[in-house]
TrEMBL record:
InterPro entries: ACX4-like, Acyl-CoA_DH_CS, Acyl-CoA_Oxase/DH_mid-dom, Acyl-CoA_Oxase/DH_mid-dom_sf, AcylCo_DH-like_C, AcylCo_DH/oxidase_C, AcylCoA_DH/ox_N, AcylCoA_DH/ox_N_sf. One of its GO terms (biological process) is fatty acid beta-oxidation. Belongs to the acyl-CoA dehydrogenase family. GO terms for molecular function: acyl-CoA dehydrogenase activity; flavin adenine dinucleotide binding. Signal peptide: none annotated. SUPFAM superfamilies: Acyl-CoA dehydrogenase C-terminal domain-like, Acyl-CoA dehydrogenase NM domain-like. Keywords: FAD, Flavoprotein, Oxidoreductase. This is Acyl-CoA dehydrogenase. Coiled coil: none annotated. Residues 241-385 form the Acyl-CoA dehydrogenase/oxidase C-terminal domain.
Length: 392
């Protein structure tokens, strides 16, 4: 199956997939190249979400592959990792849209919801008839949101009443359901709720003038005496430790997206190096250009190796929080280097959207920051190394 490998998969990690998985991955790659890639630059430039592509994603049957569901067993963790990589290789914005819907929102319901709650929301989310979002980060609470969460929940008869605000919520402007975390006034514990679009007291406002992942519709959410049914509290979402059960899984997905972003930048850089001529020959024949390409490929290969091992540990339920944190922080940091070198190779053309690389360059900044900043993830790793916490 070596003919299916991407040239940037220098050590052939994709060959660890089964033959059927590799064929399925190739079909996904062809779908993304033909159906999605032609639209990504226009969507990124306009900062508008291409809603007409949602049915295409539904038809491609790529949602929910991480979960066992009726009539369809889950795919291997390694395959779903490569799936996230392929999505981000074409467009980190669309990979983020799907990661929020498929990983964070659906994942919260699958992991923390009761069977009745899963049956209520998951089937339509699988079909992408219901789109999900994930409301954790707050205007004054990013890295310290676990202790500093200000959004509150109060039980009132057969309802919960939410008050507060969330920020940077991907898919937030158009999501049909938003998984929202709020501190219970009764016991000071963080509980998990599902708020449906149109609920009185709930508003979503698009964050404008964003220069990374521009296609992703990030929103400010506000909750003003927002009353939701008691059955919309996820049954097993009762502390922040429960939130971390979701984040440990999705943090690995961000690492895979970081690999894909690097891959996309590397591939357009290689193509440009072969076709761009200066001083009478292709710039790919110059030593300094080859040095840049070799450094990029080294980052891609190291990052891919780390994420492959991460998925193998997930498969056997051995992945630890500190391992997921190291993968996310390392891969996205190397991603910043890789896209920077790619942009450098393009010279002035590197800041023109027509050449794609500026999109990867900007999007890498968002991947570097969300799902835990590099600094916070390194503190998780540092605590594991030393046995001492350096958190404030």
């Amino acid at each position: 199956m070596t003919d299916l490998l991407l040239p940037a998969d220098f050590f052939g990690f994709q060959s660890l997939l089964s033959d059927d998985e590799q064929k399925e991955l190739l079909a996904l790659r062809e779908f993304l190249e033909s159906e999605i890639k032609p639209h990504v630059n226009a969507a990124w430039a306009s900062a508008e979400f291409p809603h007409d592509l949602i049915p295409k994603f539904a038809e491609a049957d790529i949602v929910g592959r991480s979960y066992d569901w009726e009539g369809r067993p889950r795919a291997s963790r390694l395959y779903t990792g490569f799936q996230a990589m392929e999505l981000s290789r074409v467009d980190p914005s669309m990979a983020t849209f799907l990661g929020v819907h498929n990983g964070l929102a659906m994942g919260s319901i699958m992991i923390l919801g009761s069977e009745e709650q899963r049956q209520r929301w998951i089937p339509s989310m699988m079909q992408m008839q219901t789109i999900g979002a994930f409301g954790l980060t707050e205007p004054e609470g990013g890295s310290d949101v676990a202790r500093g969460m200000r959004t509150t929940a109060r039980r009132d008869g057969d309802s919960w009443v939410l008050n507060g605000a969330k920020r940077w919520i991907g898919n937030g402007t158009f999501a049909d359901v938003v998984v929202v975390f709020a501190r219970d006034e009764a016991d000071d514990q963080v509980k998990t709720f599902v708020v449906e679009k149109g609920t009185p007291g709930f508003t979503a406002t698009k964050i404008e003038d964003k220069f990374a992942l521009r296609t992703v519709q990030n929103a400010d959410l506000t909750f003003t005496d927002c009353r939701i049914p008691a059955e919309n509290k996820l049954e097993d979402g009762n502390t922040f430790k429960d939130v971390n059960k979701v984040l440990k899984v999705t943090r690995g997905g961000v690492a895979w997206s970081g690999v894909g972003c690097q891959l996309g930048a590397y591939e357009v850089a290689v193509a440009y190096a072969k076709e761009r001529h200066q001083f009478g020959k292709a710039i790919g024949s110059f030593q300094l250009i080859q040095d840049l390409l070799a450094r990029m490929l080294g980052n891609v290969t190291a990052s891919l190796g780390m994420t492959v091992r991460l998925s193998q540990l997930q498969e056997t339920d051995e992945l630890r929080d500190d391992q997921a944190a190291l993968a996310k922080s390392y891969v996205t940091a190397r991603g910043r280097e890789t896209v920077g070198w790619a942009r450098e190779l393009f010279g002035g053309n590197g800041i023109v959207l027509d050449f794609d690389v500026v999109r990867y360059f900007n999007d890498a900044e968002a991947l570097y920051s969300y799902e835990g900043t590099r600094e916070m993830n390194t503190l998780i790793v540092g605590r594991s190394i030393t046995g001492m916490s350096a958190f404030v």
